[in-house]
Amino acid sequence: xxxHDGTALQIVLPPDPRLLRVLRLVASGVASxxxxxxxxxxxxxxxxxxxxxxxxxxxxxxxxxxxFELTHxxxxxxxxxxxxxxxxxxxxxxxxxxxxxxxxxxxxxxSNGMAHGRIDKATTSPS
Length: 127
Description:
With 127 residues, the protein is α+β, with helices and mostly antiparallel strands. 35% of the residues lie in helices and 31% in strands. The chain has helices spanning 20-33, 38-58, 93-102, and strands at 7-13, 64-70, 74-82, 105-111, 114-122. It is globular. The two termini are 20 Å apart. The mean pLDDT is 92.
């Protein structure tokens, strides 16, 4: 797909780990729209799995919102879910190490009672 500026998708899931399969399928589908090679599509799938797992684990039982935004040079995946009062998001160090390998960049935040994660994957090779 040559022109994917503005391709955006949002998914709202209950915090059920069984639904990570659905999230991985969506991630693979969106990544394939960017004409990424098979290895890069798999990296996106792994990254989104880590994002989803972390947010599902942090959820209070409320929904987990995941958004995908594809531009000509980047796939951005963001997720968020409410946290218990007075808590912060705890991210497994192994998750961060995995994301260091499979994502171009990633970030975590917990503020205003919300856990938030962001993953970026470049869809073009650096020149």
